[in-house]
Amino acid sequence: MTDTSRTRILRGLGVGRGAAVGPAVRSHPAPSSAQLRADGVPDASLTAEDVSAAYRQVGEDLAKRAQAAAGTALADILRATSAMAVDPELTAAVTGRMAAGQTALSAVDAATEEFVNLFTAAGGHLGERATDLRSVRDRVVCCLLGLPGPGLPQLERPSVLVATDLAPADTSSLDLSKILAIVLEQGGPTGHTAVIAGQLGIPCVVRAGAGELREVHDGTVVAVDAAAGTVVVEPDEATRTRIDVRICGLRELAENRSPGRTRDHHPVELLANIGTPDDAERLDPNGVEGVGLFRTEVLFLGREKAPSREEQALSYTRVLRALPDRKVVVRTLDAGADKPLAFVPREYEENPALGVRGFRVGRTAPDLIHTQLDALAHTWKSSGTESWVMAPMIATPQEAAAFASMAHGRGIRRAGVMIEVPAAAVRAADILREVDFVSIGTNDLAQYTMAADRLLGGLADLLDPWQPAVLHSVAGVLRAATTVGKPAGICGESAADPLMALVLTGLGATSLSMAPGSVPTVRFVLAQHTLAQCRHIADAALTEATPTDARNAALRLADPTTLNFVGVTAGGLTR
Ligand code: PEP
Ligand code: MG
Q1: How far is the CA of 492 from the centre of ligand 1 (A)?
Q2: Separation CA 388–CA 77 (nearest Å)
Q3: Whose CA is nearest to atom 4 of ligand 1?
Q4: Does the reported pTM lie above 0.85?
Q5: What is the CB-side half-sphere exposure of residue 529 using CA atoms within 13 A?
Q6: Which domain holds residue 348?
Q7: What residue ranges line ligand 1, CB within 6 angstroms?
Q8: Residue 338: nearest ligand to its CA?
Q9: Does one domain contain both 189 and 220?
Q10: What's the pLDDT score for residue 247?
């Protein structure tokens, strides 16, 4: 029997609809200097030779891991990090400090921070490498102290991964078969780890526990409910039963393969967001009506050189083959800002999110977009399937027209753009004149409308897609598209929220694209409401002045039994 007096509920932001119960397993961060000092770790005996050997060892380990991951984007990241570990300048900075009297561990920390500051000041691609430098530091410290390397634990049984935060490289090396759920103390609902977890159908709660998550140790049983945004530590029988019922319900919903329809048969395409050919191959082609967002940048990130036309064509072909006769909307490279590319020359940018990113990369590296469109046109021509391509971060009708002409000029039939910059949302009617369709990226649209960095979990309240300013912006775009009769979908994370899906349908969305694991719930909720109900719900949400009131207004008008079944409650989820 579970001792119910030990049950605690930690709240956070849920990503996706899933739920799971299992033992917690923590990722192992390297000890901080403060922690080491507090523990009285004696490092005075460590010599400069020990330190140089530790850097060499870390470099070799990373190089081996890169070899094992050959052919993936991760391999390039690991190779570059390995090169950093054996960089003689870094080792010299550490041993120089030791010669001047510092102990080994403080010298490692001080030299790391010195390089981090240099990289951060350089900005762009180098700024991004600061995380890798710190990861080298963590590994060297563990090596010097004989501790197991920092990072993800080796999982022996299906477990709930608990961490302060996870780097994208950590997330991509997860053994999926053993991860029941992910719980993070930090991170944001539209951050990379959350997006990847959603992509893989892993229930995830971010910003969990407000400090209390640290008390969850290896082996402690936790019940994760992404729909409610809760993590129940040492759950009682009632909680376990509730979660088990939810898991069974979700399994049942996943059996339904019908296309997206309201109760009165108004069609809304239900599509998947993917990032790699592997994602496409993992999809059940009958479970979705296609792909609404193929984020192609994964193919370009962490590489020294851009992939060739031929290499790209191979990747795109794999995706089309995995989804025969399905619609696949490919987004051209969305790099820059938080996704810098080594091979694109970049000036220092004070505000990279407002800099040369997305379609704008074509200003400095026009060959990239031309080669990518050539590869796509070639792929579609050989496969004989309908071609849909869209550009990210379009701000003006002129950019939209330029992109459409590049795509149409190569025989690509449907050229569209993402609406994720407020300027594009305001001038949506003008943009729609230039293109065949639009897709609203609510992650960036919320970021730029609210002037709130989407990677800052602390600003999650401002990034909430129920914010009236964001809702009205989305409504304006959908109205403009309905007027001209062109398709307008949503491919930001908000499409995965079943209550928001009703609002978006009521506003005129023709497709909803989301992490594949969210499709069954959205399909179910949509099928229980008529188009008139969706319109009524949308109107009610639009009249409210706060995100909470907007959500509650929608909730009051939606079918309570349906929402209850999928875990949508008044105090619960937002996304
Ligand atoms: C978005 O901004 O909503 C979007 C779908 O694009 P990404 O998350 O890749 O920036
Ligand atoms: Mg975006």
Answers
A1: 5
A2: 30
A3: 441
A4: no
A5: 32
A6: 270-516
A7: 293, 295, 334, 420, 441-444, 491-492
A8: 1
A9: yes
A10: 87
